[in-house]
Structure formats: structure tokens, C-alpha cells
Amino acid sequence: MNRRTFYLCGAVVLLASPLQAIAAAEPIQATLYKNPQCTCCEGYAAYLRQNGFAVDVKPTNDLAEISQKAGVPEQYQGCHTMFVGNYVVDGHVPVEVIQKLLSERPAIAGITLPGMPEGSPGMYGTKSGPFVIYAVTKDGAAPTVFATV
Predict the structure, then answer these.
(1) CA distance 146 to 85
(2) What integer pLDDT is reported at residue 16 of this predicted model?
(3) pLDDT per residue as tens digits for the range 5-20
(4) Nearest-angstrom CA–CA distance, 31 and 81
(5) How far apart, in whole angstroms, are the C-alpha atoms of residue 109 and residue 107?
(6) Residues 70, 109 contacting (CB under 8 angstroms)
(7) Strand partners, 37
């Protein structure tokens, strides 16, 4: 093997490795519980799918109970509840905040963006200010700010 062939093969291996890693990336599995009549939740699930998540959507009439059992106080609940990577994610939380949660792995039950803020992922309208995402615990401690985006 001559030097030129050796370097060419080395370059191909180096370039192919990142592509293989990207192609081999598994989607992030998530289960999203939503009110059967809510359409914005479907928009949020589509947003997540576009960003590397495999989302199983489950309509339920017990959404408030699911959120509360997961550690999300009533006044901090969003319009849907998702479980991903052993965490609860309540509401229209932007994907970069979910990725932060999954990469940092804090000792919390999960995160929530309360209500249905306009301009949040899956919601209509224009974002009018920062979204405050809260960390919640299952022990009843008061939620704290996890991220502001």
C-alpha cells in the first residue's frame, strides 16, 4: 500500500465515523399523556419528533392526577404530561431544556412549563417573553427555576 492510498483510507475512516454515529443515534423514547380533545399537544408531539424523539401519545381524562402523582403541583401543571428518561416533563417545554435535563440528570422528578404560553413549541401565537421552566420534586418541596429561555 502506498502512502497516498494509506492517507486516503484514513481520511475516509475519519469522515465516516461521525456519520455512522449520527445515523446510529437512537431516538429518545417518550410517552405523552394528553386530554383527548387537545390539539396543541399533537403539535408538541410533532415538534419533538422533528427533534429526535419517538413519542407515544396517549389520550386520557386523568391528566391532572397523572401530573400530580409525578410531582407536578396543580398550579405548575401544563396541558400535557410526558415521561422521558425517568423524568416527567409537563407542558410545552422547549427541546433544548429537555436535552439539558437528560444530559445533566439532576436529582429531581422533572420539569414543567405551566399553562399554555403563546409561542411555546406546539402553541400558536408569538412568544412575548421568556419561558420559565421549573424543577419539581416528588417530596412536596416548592418548585425552583430550572431554566429560562
Answers:
(1) 17
(2) 42
(3) 444 444 444 444 444 4
(4) 8
(5) 7
(6) yes
(7) none
Q: How far apart are CA 90 and CA 111, in angstroms?
A: 6
Distance CA 89, CA 49 (A): 15
Query: Would you mind telling me the total number of residues written for the chain in this entry?
Result: 149
Its pTM stands at 0.81
DSSP string, the chain: --HHHHHHHHHHHHHHHHHHHHHHPPPEEEEEEE-TT-SHHHHHHHHHHHTTEEEEEEE-S-HHHHHHHTT--GGG-BSEEEEETTEEEESS--HHHHHHHHHH--SSSEEE--B--TTSTT--S---SPPEEEEE-SS-PPPEEEEE-
pLDDT tens for residues 84-127?
Answer: 999 999 999 999 999 999 999 999 999 999 999 999 998 999 99
CB neighbours (10 Å) of residue 141? Answer: 12
